[in-house]
Design goal:
Oligomer: single chain
GO cellular component, one term: membrane
Helix content: 25-40%
Shape: globular
Keywords: ATP-binding, Nucleotide-binding, Phosphate transport, Transport
Family: Belongs to the ABC transporter superfamily.
Largest sheet: 6 strands, mixed
Radius of gyration: 18 Å
CATH architecture: 3-Layer(aba) Sandwich
CATH superfamily: P-loop containing nucleotide triphosphate hydrolases
Number of strands: 10
Protein name: Arginine transport ATP-binding protein ArtM
Strand content: 25-35%
CATH class: Alpha Beta
GO molecular function, one term: ATP binding
Amino acid sequence: MSPDKDTAPQASNPADAIDLDVRGLSRRVADRLLVDNVTVGIRRGEVLAVTGPSGAGKSSFLRLLNRLDEPTGGTVFFKQSDYRGIDPRLLRRRIGMVLQTAYLFPGTVTSNLQFGPGQLGKTLSADRIADLLGRVDLPGYQERDVSTLSGGEAQRVSLARTLANEPEVLLLDEPTSALDEETTRSIEELVLGINRDSGVTCVLVTHNRAQAERMAPRTLYMERGRLVAIGATGEILDAH
């Protein structure tokens, strides 16, 4: 029997805690059903890959998880609270997103890192900025103009800018698809290090089988907006 959609989930054991309890999540735009009745629990501290063919609804699903797009059906319980009751701007700081292309604001790396906290009236200290840049392996980049960065450097700054908001969940929408293999592996190691050191839950949309195998113990497979299968990454990828 499916759970009552108006009842918050209860975690009996912290090891089994669910960060994102997705219930019947759907999004329809005109006559197109982009995401179709997806129900899944995303565990606290896990790295979950989301795969499937082009047009399967992977990115649309990801954007619903922090209300960058609004669902037309269903909801998400974030840490046992219905996310419809959380201010969207606050939600997007707690559930951060890194996109396929790094969209940085004109100016310096520091000004980009300061943006999110600044929206809450906070100022990042010089030490905190240095720490963030150290975590993404860009020491000394504080005053670099973002227009001078390589693709890999820009993606690292995008990641650091998201981390400046101290997210509890990190959504990654094919963050390495435009990067070369060496830079891709470096970004993967950064994300896995953040997950390991901070316990940040990560949901990774990827079309790269090898990347899913390297990063995610569990994989969700989508087709035509629907969740087709979820389980151990090797088993899911072998079956699809």
